[in-house]
């Protein structure tokens, strides 16, 4: 069996050379994070498309979505709300281990939530930290390069930072605060923080992207 960390490295190199699938950021699209690991929003979960991609397992991380039986595809549901106070940490090892089991058995997994922005990317990031040989910073950059809309909420990022420290003995992402608009964000999202420093744009951006709900 190919070493996972080597496979991840190879896949990242292919992407940087423009040999991988096109980048996507729409919740109606399925993004290929690794050759066997996919990320999407709920609208992309179409049985014919899943069979076309060879998906064997679907992990639904949005508790408000109804159960969706799929022929010959195992569905796992995580009871998690997309709010900063939700306890992401209680599920991280369970889902990471599940994904690794799928890989070890030559399966292909799709992880999704409602939009593929906060909950499902959080689990994909945790997997890359625990089993993919990546730091949280590297994992975020890798996933964000493929799917630009990913943005785990403030509480989820704090859980991921703690998870990385436990798994790797150090933290590579820090939370930073912009006093001008009163928002705390992970430093990997610092470009957005710079935009928010212009108070003329702060209100419109917060309204359009839901920053209060995502980062507060």
Please describe the topology of this protein.
Blueprint: H1 4-16, E1 30-34, E2 37-40, H2 47-53, E3 57-60, E4 74-77, H3 89-104, E5 109-112, H4 119-130, H5 136-146, H6 154-168, E6 175-178, E7 183-186, H7 190-196, H8 199-209, H9 211-215
GO cellular component, one term: cytoplasm
Domain Tyrosine specific protein phosphatases: 89-150
Family: Belongs to the protein-tyrosine phosphatase family. Non-receptor class dual specificity subfamily.
Write up what this structure looks like.
It is a single chain. By secondary structure, this protein is α/β, with parallel strands linked by helices. It has 2 domains: 4-151, Alpha-Beta Complex (Protein-Tyrosine Phosphatase, Chain A); 175-215, no CATH class. The protein contains 9 helices and 7 strands. The strands form 2 sheets. It has a 5-stranded mixed sheet with strand order 1-2-5-3-4. A two-stranded antiparallel sheet has the order 6-7. Helix 3 (89-104) packs across helix 4, helix 4 (119-130) packs across helix 5 and helix 4 (119-130) packs parallel to helix 6. The protein is globular, with a radius of gyration of 17 Å. It holds the Pfam family DSPc. One of its GO terms (cellular component) is cytoplasm. Keywords: Hydrolase, Protein phosphatase.
């Amino acid at each position: 069996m190919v070493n996972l960390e080597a496979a991840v490295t190879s896949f990242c190199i292919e992407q940087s050379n423009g040999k991988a699938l096109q980048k996507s950021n729409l919740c109606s699209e399925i993004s290929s994070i690794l050759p066997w690991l996919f990320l999407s929003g709920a609208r992309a979960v179409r049985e014919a498309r899943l069979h076309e991609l060879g998906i064997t397992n679907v992990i639904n991380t949005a508790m408000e979505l109804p159960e969706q039986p799929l022929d010959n595809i195992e569905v796992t549901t995580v009871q998690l709300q997309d709010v900063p106070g939700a306890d992401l940490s209680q599920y991280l090892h369970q889902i990471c281990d599940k994904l690794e089991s799928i890989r070890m058995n030559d399966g292909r997994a799709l992880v999704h939530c409602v939009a593929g922005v906060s909950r499902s990317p959080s689990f994909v990031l945790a997997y890359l930290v625990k089993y993919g040989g990546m730091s949280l910073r590297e994992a975020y950059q890798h996933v964000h390069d493929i799917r630009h809309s990913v943005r785990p909420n403030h509480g989820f990022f704090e859980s991921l930072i703690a998870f990385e420290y436990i798994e790797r003995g150090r933290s590579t992402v820090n939370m930073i605060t912009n006093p001008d608009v009163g928002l705390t964000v992970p430093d990997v999202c610092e470009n957005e923080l710079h935009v928010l420093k212009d108070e003329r744009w702060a209100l419109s951006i917060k309204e359009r992207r839901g920053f209060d709900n995502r980062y507060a």
